[in-house]
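Morning!

This is the sequence you dropped in the shared folder:
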Amino acid sequence: MNGMITTDEGFDLDEVISRMKTYSVTGVVNATTCKESYVLPGEGKRVALLDLGAKKNIARSLNERGCEVTVYPADTKAEVILSTNPDGIMLSNGPGDPKECTEIIKEIRKLYESQVPIFAICLGHQLMALATGADTHKLKYGHRGGNHPVKDLETGRVYISSQNHGYVVDEDTVDPAVAVPAFVNVNDGTNEGMKYTGKNIFTVQYHPEACPGPQDSSYLFDRFINMMEVGKNA
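The structure's back. Tokens below.
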């Protein structure tokens, strides 16, 4: 929500409102991503994490499960990531309007077209949807806080989730031949995750690394580990 502080007692309210409506924050992913790649050593699966403004606990959650995690800046080309032959790719959370990330979306499309298992969180979830032809829209108020109920459509179980986003994937624009809804927000029915048809790819809108519940969603990292193992043996 945009706002303005002014010390001018004679300000023109219409002008102020017009300026607030036209103001937007841009370039936030590039401002928050890491400046160069780095590695968290591990003896297990090799995961490439695309840092779109990533919370550190995403890499830590994978590393604690034995994964070697290589963290890449947001502007890294898909060819660079794929050339390392990772067991899996992680697309992180991040700030801002997903539609602003036009160049990143192009690279994510290339990652989608590979056969590497992918797990995406929040902004990564939105960018994967945009990269595969779906659309996103801005929520009126956004979802904030650590107590949002989310339903896993495969099991019917409801989990307590941590959320911090202003945009969501518009389910009506998703081609079922490409992906199907996997999670739904119990409060307002908005999309909370996708499962990609014929691909080892799943995405969630909420934050399993934020320890909601306090451990309700940590199983998603284990699901990703298992998906990499299945992909390796396929």
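Headline: The chain has a mean pLDDT of 92.

More detail when I'm at my desk.
O.
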